[in-house]
Amino acid sequence: MSAERRVETREYVLGFGVALLLTGAAFAAVYWQKFAALPTLGIVFALGLTQVIVHFRFFLHVGFKKSAREDLQLILFSALIVALMVSGTLVVLLNLRGRML
Amino acid sequence: MSKGEVRHVGLNLGATDAIAHRKAERAVFGFWVFLMSDAVLFALLFATYGSMLGATAGGPTAAAEFKLFSALFETLILLASSFTFGMASIAMKYRKAGESLAPLLAWLGVTLALGMTFLGMELHDFVGMFQVGAYPSRSGFLSAFFALVPLHGLHVLGGSIWLLVMMVQLASLGADAQVKINILKLGLFWHFLDIVWIAIFSVVYLQGLIR
Amino acid sequence: MVFFMAMPFIAGLLNYVVPLQIGARDVAFPLLNAVSFWLTAGAAALMMGSLVIGRFSTGGWSGYPPYTELAFSPGVGPDYWIWAVTLGSIGSTLTGLNFIVTIFKMRAPGMHMMRMPLFCWTALCTAILMIFAMPPLTVATALLALDRYLGYHFFTNDLGGNMMNYANLFWLFGHPEVYILILPAFGVYSEVVSTFSSKALYGYTSLAVATSAIAVLSFTVWVHHFFTMGQSSNINGAFGIATMAIGIPTGVKIYDWIWTMFRGEVRFTVPMLYSLAFMVTFVFGGFSGIILAMPPLDFQVHNTVFLIAHFHNMLIPGVLYGLLAGYHYWFPKAFGFRLNERWGRIAFGCWVAGFYVTFMPLYVLGLSGMVRRAQEVFDPAFRPWLFVSLCGALLLLCALCSLGVQLWVSVRERAQNRVFVGDPWDGRSLEWSVSAPPPAYVFAVIPEVYERDAFYESKRRHDARRRPARYEDIELPCNSAVGVTIGLSAAAAAFGLVWHIWWLASVGVVLVWAAVIARSFARNVNRLVPAAEVARTEERWLAAVAASPPIARPVETTSLNRGLAESAS
């Protein structure tokens, strides 16, 4: 196995391992719920976001130093649009619900 | 790997197949753009789900119907399939001309089997939910659930069919540039679906089961 | 009008002009381009079919539930609307994808982003908007379809439905959509104003930045389409401020165009006339937009014809004049002969007069309280204004007919107005450096670019249209039946879904995917244009260049114009 192949294989193994841990931690946080609802939710979301980044880095090989500029620009722009649309939707609809009750 | 060699998202063929590597830049970037539009689609379904968490209309709720271990096993299976696809990508990249296609086909086959297992489990879950009266036309909340999660499932089904087609193409056409580029695109798709599933198990299943 | 007149017209302009301007032979994914076209054509056929088979939706272009739910619209109308819009929106998304990749990856060597023509900047931002704005529409129509076909409760009145989310989703699409419509028109104006002022575009950087700012900001204002839906005044206020902010980059562009004309040699050709009419009229419409951006004022005129006047004030002088200017400007490039100038002016006069006479009364009527989308005239005081508006509509009909007459006359007179050399307007960008019409491969040799307005600068150096050192074989894609198959199968499937003919819907969907899979097995899908043929075509053109008299700008609209503009001194 060439050196480059070993390096690339290790990336997938490492990513898989870390993702397993993060998954386990999230499910454990809910199964053995030690905190109140909102902090637990926060932990789950934080672990999920971390795992998304792990997938991007180790499975999709996307990173600030590694990637082509256009690919990074596209991901960051998409993240911005998704954040705007989702947060806008939730703010508006939850506000409407509050004013109707 | 020097930065100049990375031309697109996902595993880059680099010097192992210079011609395919050059052609891949445009094709893979285009597919990545498509995935961004798909991401917006899913994001809005998540937002809709979030806004309809309370719309249970006196019917079945998340806490009552979601099964933690079922969701966990589905998660582990899909994550494993992402890993096996990664192994398939590496087998494809480092296979020299004339070497056997068997390792590549084997990894793809395992990925396919894991994907189908995931779908089977998910279908079984849905049938179980229907049997206890948790069907989409019961309430807005269930409508939102049964739009978001089956859409992901449909994507996995599409990806599985694509996997099958790629295995047939490898066997019949060999690993030419076009086949390799299509497998690179499929790889992006498969990893993307696992990323969406992370959001699903966090926002849908785990959120629903928090007391 | 939006989905099946404006969007296809825009896509057509982008398709034709962008590859030529960036020095590419084709778009990044030619077959996908064909698929986009045929999906749009299929969707339009479906909608037109509804004129004779069944009845189209009466829910307007936005299709709001609960009116469009089964309970209130049990017929096939909303289903026709849903599937026609779905097919069209998929076609547009794929077009956006194609142009993002084309512009990012296929620019000629040396053409940095800041050296591209402004039309390509607006094309890029339009494509980005298409990618991110069409998905909300797909979601809105898909969820409505789930409600109607499978009894889901997204937008129903009962069991947890929330129709306000539909308005939210639709306008998440709807607002960026109007910027998808206007940005290409802004790009046309940049090209036309620069060319017919005989001057480089003023403030290129500010124009590029303003275009990008408009693209991003267009995702932050959608709530202004439903200020009255019930959310708090803080939310309305935030979106009102964002809406006013988005007027600023547009204002920057208007100033840049005015400064481009300043101290230029302005020629009043038909495209330039449209640009001037645009600058005056569109700004007026923009003012009415700023009025509407303030929630308290919007509450007064919501659902009145004031809004109709406002958006037609943006669409007609903005989008339509831009498309017509682009049509006149690039028609000679595409077809090899100029359009008749006299009928162009007649049409122009009718469009401008017609617009003012039709829509200015609607501002007055809207402020007086006349509601939109009503079948009756409730207040007799409205009638005189409506009659004036009717006269304006007749003028607009004359305008449309004039365009038809113009085309007929132009085709009849084409021999006198041929511009084979390819540069009738003393253009600045690469599309004018090839023959009119260009050969299938466009560029015999892909140009290398070292500056903005590269072709114009090469003309000034007397270095334009050089014979290449050698000719190479050129690979082009073969024609394919895949695009037609996918588009028409999708339309057939949609028809099946509308009328609940499940076997037809299934067969259509299967055919679409079968075509995709079968195509992926195909190899040898390109054809080779041999170097000898390229040489023959190019030599014929270069001979015509040598034989044509260069013409000065004042006579560019006469039959003296063979397509060779006098080199700028």
Largest sheet of chain A: none
Pairing-aware structural class of the strands and helices of chain C?
A: mainly alpha
| Helicity of chain C, as a percent range | 55-70%
- Given as residue ranges, the uncertain stretches of chain C (5+ residues, pLDDT < 50) are none
Question: Average pLDDT of chain A, to the nearest integer?
Answer: 93
Q: Strand order within the widest sheet of chain C? A: 1-2
> What kind of assembly state do the chains in view correspond to?
heterotrimer
User: How many strand segments of chain C?
Assistant: 2
Strand proportion of chain A: under 5%
Walk me through what this model shows.
The complex is a heterotrimer of chains A (101), B (211) and C (569). Chain A has 101 residues and is mainly alpha-helical. Helix content of chain A is 83%, strand content 0%. Chain A contains three helices and no strands. Chain A is flat and about 65 Å long. The model of chain A has no long low-confidence stretch (mean pLDDT 93). The radius of gyration of chain B is 19 Å and the shape is elongated. The N and C termini of chain B lie far apart (47 Å). Chain C has 569 residues and is mainly α. Chain C is 63% helix and 1% strand. Chain C has a two-stranded antiparallel ribbon with strand order 1-2. In chain C, helix 2 packs antiparallel against helix 3, helix 3 runs antiparallel to helix 4 and helix 4 runs antiparallel to helix 5. The longest helix of chain C has 34 residues. At the A-B interface, helix 1, helix 2 and helix 3 of A face helix 1, helix 3 and helix 6 of B.
List keywords for this structure.
heterotrimer, A: 101 residues, mainly alpha, C: 569 residues, two-stranded antiparallel ribbon, 2 strands, 1% strand
Structure, briefly:
By secondary structure, chain B is an all-alpha fold. Chain B has six helices and no strands.
